[in-house]
Amino acid sequence: MITESLQVFIAVIERNSFSHAAEELFMSQPSVSLHIRNLENEFGIKLLHRSPKQLVLTPAGEILFQHAKEILSHYDQAKREIDDLRQIVTGTLKIGASFTVGEYILPRFLTEVSPDYPNVDVSVTIANTEEITQALRQNQLDIGVVEGRVTFPDIQIEPFMDDEMALIVALDHPLAALNKASEQDLQDQVWILRESGSGTRAFSDQLLQSLGVRMKRTFVFSSNEGVKEAVINGLGITVISLLVVRKEIEAKELKAVFIKSKDKLPLSRRLCIIHRKEPISSKAMEEFLEKLRTFKFL
Q: Would you say 48 and 65 are in contact if contact means Cβ atoms under 8 Å apart?
């Protein structure tokens, strides 16, 4: 690193000796000579003339010597400030979340933890899982919290929580009379789906394929709110997170009908925290990651 070479250069000039500088810095004399050569290669010019009795700075060496201590002083100050930054949680944190997480989990999480970090500004991006993952890989986000599978080798995946899913129907839909729907009950229905790239869509596709469901027709919406409104208005049925429709179920606008199948397919999915596989870039990111790992959504 050039700062170490500058320290060696200053010691050589102040001691007027390669050997004395080596003793002071606990280095070998060849190492001292190497640092001086590296500096001369860096600047492309001779910095000092060496004779058996004395060292003489060249004009370029004079210029560098005048600035070297100032450069090292600025470096030390920057290092102190960065060390302080690692202890004081401050700065901006960019969090990406898929729709279910961003609309129904993340607001509660931020409400709970943000008062402890008044100097952190948080920016939240809500998009589908695929879009959040790509933004994270392109360094546009610090942390992602998503549903669905993420398989990129440069992304670290940490399980966050389980999310219960259910078949959701309007109260006047024929399936609303059932507490549990069989595979046969689901045949030839109109289905309301999320868009491709959504974790909810990936779960729905896998579930319906596993059940061998034959769909009469589909409508695709790019948001949970659109899906909910479509179902409430009788356009069709859907499979979605219970977190999304909890209020509507309590208000008796929608009904959750659980699915029974001979294979006992799971009706839950794993939500995950994702971040790049590289050292944590800030104290804010480190702290919020730790809070997310221990967050309990009730």
A: no
Q: What pLDDT score was predicted for residue 192?
A: 97
For the domain made up of 164-268, the CATH class stated in words is alpha beta
> Which of 6, 171, 140 has its CA nearest to residue 73?
6
Q: Which two tokens stand for residue 141?
A: 């986000």
d(CA 34, CA 2): 12
Q: Domain 91-160+270-294 carries which CATH code?
A: 3.40.190.10
| Cβ atoms < 10 Å from Cβ of 256 | 18
* pLDDT attached to residue 264: 66
Ranges of the chain with pLDDT below 50? none
pTM: 0.63
Transcribe 94-118 into DSSP letters: EEEE-HHHHHHTHHHHHHHHGGG-T
Would you say the CATH fold of 164-268 matches that of 2-87?
A: no
User: What are the strands, taking DSSP E only, across 182-266?
Assistant: 189-194, 215-221, 238-241, 254-259
The string of pLDDT tens digits covering residues 67-108 is 988 888 888 888 777 766 666 677 788 999 999 999 999 999
Give the integer Cα–Cα distance in Å for 298 and 285.
Answer: 24
Domain boundaries defined on the chain:
2-87, 91-160+270-294, 164-268
**pLDDT tens, residue by residue, 154-163:** 999 999 889 9
Nearest to 244 by CA among 215, 269, 218, 217: 269
| CA atoms within 13 A of residue 284's CA, in its CB half-sphere | 19
Strands (E), 7-68: 48-50, 55-57
- DSSP string over 70-82: HHHHHHHHHHHHH
With pLDDT > 70 as the criterion, what percentage of the chain qualifies?
96
Contact 265, 187 (CB under 8 A): no
CATH fold, domain 2-87, is Arc Repressor Mutant, subunit A (1.10.10)
